[in-house]
Amino acid sequence: MKIKDYIESGILEAYVVGSASAAETQQLLELKEKHPEVAHALNELELDLERIAEHMSITPPPGMLAKIEDSIGELIRQERSNRMPAWADPSTDQKFNANDKPENQFIEVEGSSSHMRIHKAWRWVFAAVFVLGKIFLGLAIYYYLESRQAFKEIQKLEHQQEILKKNQ
Question: Dihedral sign, CA of 85, 86, 92, 98?
């Protein structure tokens, strides 16, 4: 029963995705050697993860392998000659064909989500800006109403002053 609890504990999943600690990894490898159930469960989990990866994979555009091989070949030639590539050297003003331009080295990938993802730190900044905006809006309304009230009081006092001047 202990082995079944160990298999269901989530340590195998942590090991497969690479988030297990060194002690957990060592313990798993020892149990894998001693207990075939652990080895079988680990093998099944790895196969499931591989199936998921195959199912979610995206077929690269045609000709991508040739571009990758050309890029690797160029990197090897550069390493051998220890010089910068012509497209990365700012001192060269040469015209290049479409295959040499850096902007053609990227693959267009269309995402399935229409939401923009931002770093978590920026979420707090946006939240702070939102809250400050509401505070400033409230203060603006408050001071607008206060100034209107003060203006009415000034008009009332001016009117009373005019009446007093007429009575004197």
Answer: negative
Each residue's pLDDT, cut to its tens digit, for the chain (168 residues) gives 588 888 888 899 999 888 999 999 999 999 999 999 999 999 999 999 899 988 888 888 888 989 999 999 988 888 877 755 555 555 555 444 545 555 556 666 666 667 767 777 788 888 999 999 999 999 999 999 999 999 999 999 999 999 999 988
Q: What are the structural domain ranges in the chain?
A: 2-56, 64-105, 119-168
* Side chain identity, residue 122: W
Kindly report whether the global pTM for this prediction surpasses the value 0.85: no
For residue 82, CA distances in Å to 85, 89, 98, 162 come to 10, 13, 24, 92
In a 10 Å sphere around its CB, with 0-12 CB exposed, 13-18 middle and 19+ buried, how is residue 16 labelled? middle
Report yes or no: 3 and 33 within 8 Å, Cβ to Cβ. no
Nearest to 45 by CA among 1, 14, 24: 14
